[in-house]
Amino acid sequence: MNFLDHATIEQWLVRLCRQVDFPGVELRFESGRESAPSITPMQGTIAWKSPIESSMGLIGELQVLLRDEAVRPHFLRACELADGLAQMARQYAGLVDTVYAMRAQGERSRNALGQASVQETVEASLKSLLKLTSYRGVAFFFLDPAGATLQLKHYLHRSLQPLPTSERQLLMADFDRQALLDGWAVCHRRHPRDTSWLPEDVRTGLCVRVGNGEGLIGTLWAFDRRFRAVEDRDLHVVQSIAAQLGEVLDQAVVTLYSANHRRMKTELMLASSTQPSKTIEFVNESRSFSAYGLCRSQFDVGGDLCEVVELDDDHIFTVVGDASGNSIPAAMVMTAVRGAIYALLEEVRESNRDTSRWIEPARFMRKLNRMLVGMTASHQFMSCVCGVFQISSRTFTYCNAGHPVPIHLSGTAINYLPSHGLLLGVEESIEYEQSTMQYAVDDVFVFYSDGISEALSQSNRLFRHDGIAAAAQLHQEGTSAEIVQSIWDRMLAHQAGQAESDDATILAIKLGSKTPAPLKRPHLLGQPRRSAEALQ
Fold it and tell me: Looking at the domain covering 115-262, what would its CATH class be?
């Protein structure tokens, strides 16, 4: 779906509404455009509605229609789903407005001041500071759009040592943070921590806030080899230079940092609740099952999926997937599949109380495939592998839809679990099969995306699944976290500094020897993913 078009938001919502099937309830989208094509007549009474608007006006309205024979739980579930879709649509609409506004502002900035002249003006301002004060060096740090990191953009000096770091986390940069709050701060080399902010041969640093009418831009540092107090004259000069920089960058900040600025602004708007945790960490109550995973995106958002869901004390569901493409388009496909997974799991939970027949992965995959075909364009698809671990019988039943083959380590043996069919989203009529296998105590399963197996060395050699297996075997007797770290470290060593070319995900599962404990807590489907943050 093209995220820069309001009409595609309407098409997406219409397709989603057609896929929803609740007894006695209909989910319906009514377009706000007069020229919009007519849709099927209303079948029931509007019991819930929510408008979807942007700065350009009303896009449309999501409605939940209630028929006489509707069952209340189905109506409530339909309302929850509709509310989630409405919130997502509003995010996308705001994204469209933000991108258009940024384009207009960028065009105005380019007309007012070119990038080359901005660089020259900034450097001239910093040179003026050195001429007008007794300081020996000056540095300008730019605050990234997310407000989390300060990045070094300019450093001019008279025979000073290099700065200790070119990037600072704002939460850890005490003096920068104080300057941004109070206007200025002074750092003297009195404590070991002060070495993080000053060049090696500098004993005094003055930090001043750089900002404009719209907000904060960064910090300006002035350095001196002497241990000295800040003189009023020098402080006023530095503050004057900082104000001048603020005025210049107020006109050109979009031009200077257009690529990162626009991309981060737009992608971070979508990243809020649609992305899986970057770290997956889960151990069941009996400690017979432990999982650890890393999910890293090449950009701010990505299309890799990694989830571990405890269905009950005896069944644990796992799924790993990789949507086609990168960044926002892939993230949207992944989000649709992830939402469908949790909807299907909830449906199974409500309709099937026999935990011995919780999920048939092949049937589950067929449903996911049909939903993805109906919701996405023909060029959007996803590889996926899902399965259920049954702790009491020590079995793993799985289905693989075109995903890189999972790895099973049992003693010294290495087994690769084959695929059962094509990618999700290619053809609606595809049928999938499933396999059931026995596992032993201390066995290890490794799932991964092609961002790991296809990592390239400087000689264009792939890391491959055998490289993953070899790295996992090095720590096969360790924890799932140690296995993942071993694979990740050796993949990075294989790349040897090569730039990332894809999203990357690893999930390692270690099967312990302890038997399951009796049921002592309520059903956990409402809390499916155990992230590192949740365990703290």
Answer: alpha beta
